[in-house]
Write a structure and sequence with these properties.
heterodimer, A: alpha/beta, 5-stranded antiparallel β-sheet, 16 helices, B: 269 residues, mainly alpha, flat
Amino acid sequence: MPVANIDLLLLGVSHKTAPVAVRERLAVEPEAIAAALVELTALAPVREAAMISTCNRVELYVAAEDADRAAAELAGVLARRAGVAVGDLAEHLYQHRDSAAVRHLFRVASSLDSLVVGEPQILGQTKQAYDAAVQHGTAGAVLRACFEEGAFRVARRVRRETAIARNPVSVSSVAVEFARQVVGDFSRKRVLIVGAGKMSELAARTLRTHGATLTVINRTRARAEELAQRFGADVADWNDLQGALTTADIVIASTGAQRPVLTLETLKLVRKARRGRQLCLLDIAVPRDVEPEVGKLDGIYLFDIDDLQKQASDHRAEREEEAAEAEAVVEEELGRFVKRWRSRQRGPLVSALQTHFHGIARAEVMRLSGGVDDKERKARLDIAESLVKKLLHLPMTALRDDDPDEAVSLVQALQRLFSLSPMAAVPASEEAPAGSDANVDKKATGS
Amino acid sequence: MSTLTWHAVGAYAIAAILYLAHVVGLRRGAENAGRAMLAVGVALHFADIGVRCYHGTNPISSTPEAMSLAAFMIAAVFLLTSLRYQLTAAGGFAVPAVVALILLARLAPAEMAPPTAAAIPEMGRLGQAHILLATLGVAVFAFAAVLAIVYLFQDRSLKRKQLDLAMARGTPLETLDRLAHRCVSIGFPVFTLAIVTGAIWVARLGLLHGRGTLRPEYLIAVGTWIAFAVLIIARVGAGWRGRRAAWLTLGGFGGTALVVAAYFIRHAV
């Protein structure tokens, strides 16, 4: 959003427009962000810059004096970084300006533009991008308004008021949630990983982050020890499978066995030894590691890969539905943001207009009050001031009017009529209604 | 009913609606507002009981008064527990039960208000202790029963792989099982003392007035005591938990409710 005649410009690629082969070339490591920001702000038209770089997107948000020139120069920077010709990169690049750029930022921070809609990481990544810009002195009034007063607030509201992020959508997070509903907090719970394959590793990683204590059991002890070492887990002997099942709260089974390794008979014995304690079995192996009849036992809760995938898929569909509500929140907040910004922009114009009129009135009173005493001069000044206030009342009210089209013409008319400084101007590009031609996505020409 | 009582009932009713709205999915996040309203209801109810005490109506002087006290205890225990555990679904059962209990107590026929026992001059400390302990025991068992109901629903949802329903109820199975057991463990000695004091009290009354009739509620009370004793022994000895423990808790509370109902009906007719 503009300050004076500065535009907000967004240029970037995302999972929607570019394959990973392009994205990985443009991605910037956290330690290289500072240099990248300095490089961007060194470009002549760029006044402020922030960069969001994740595995799914690389986006540059800049406040620039000459948006067309800035867009061309930024495209050049990105092309050099990717090691391709500007023309080759152009087909993957998208560009938004002013309110369209703000809308895009709001959608990104609210996780509406994410690969998995509603995923929570993007808000943190957006905050990191802004913090880096602040830390390296490349964020000013424009980016501060867009990120701090806009994007973060919108993202919080979307999460609070919609169910977009309520339910887990990945198989591993669904598994974690099922387990949580059975055994509660993981901090004092023991998880038994049966099998030391790739899936076991993923499961171990997920549960480790939730504070669970891990034990690995595998037919080949060496592989179990290897996995255990990586996650600081204990190792149990395969011959003591029944004992390990008895002490566990959650079991993740993912062996490569062709027949179930956890049979109904075994689990009946385990259940008896557990003295009724609830047990959650997550069978993520194909073929299955746990006999399906086990799930009928009282106190034992069995979820196989189909259960987890179906739940994840249902949740993804729910999120898509919730996304419509979230989009409405984004539009509402965008409208408020633009209005607030416009009001802030008009402040100096109002002030300039008042100074202009009061100055004329005062000068005229002084000019015509050569032979009068102080009291009379003060009375004349008061009358003149009062007259100016009354004359300006209607124009001021009209200037604060919400109608964007009228406001544009009034601002421009006032500037031209009274030769006021363009400091407070609200450029036409910002005033264009959301979705109008002026703000519709434009593919960078790369010129 | 006094204005204060109506205000307490109103706050409880709003809390009940908010908890239910959260549970049935009408309004996610209503749980926090429900808890705040419940806190208001508990405060008003406490004030109501205090004011009645000040005007000479002892909270254990009659079945309706004791029921109101039990409702207050259930609400207070639930409120305190919900500060530590997420008990969304339990709120959907416990708070409406509180509303029903307090309404039943306060809208009971006027002839019940004087009393089961207060009018009996020889009620004495023993009679008061019996009613107070019985009230406390009923409240704690009622809370355990609510947790058992939620456990059974939660168990069914998880057996049917309905994660959303389980998440909406908000309390893991293990937590529900542990809390219900804790309630029964607290309620059982209280209820035991209530039965012992009640037996001695009734025996004394019988001796004084020659009213030694063995009423059905005495037998139900003993049956209830046995059910809870079996539950505690079976959990410690044979590891009875989960569904079986939940059903036995409900059975035990059913007996307790029958005893209260018997007293209520006896004094209402």
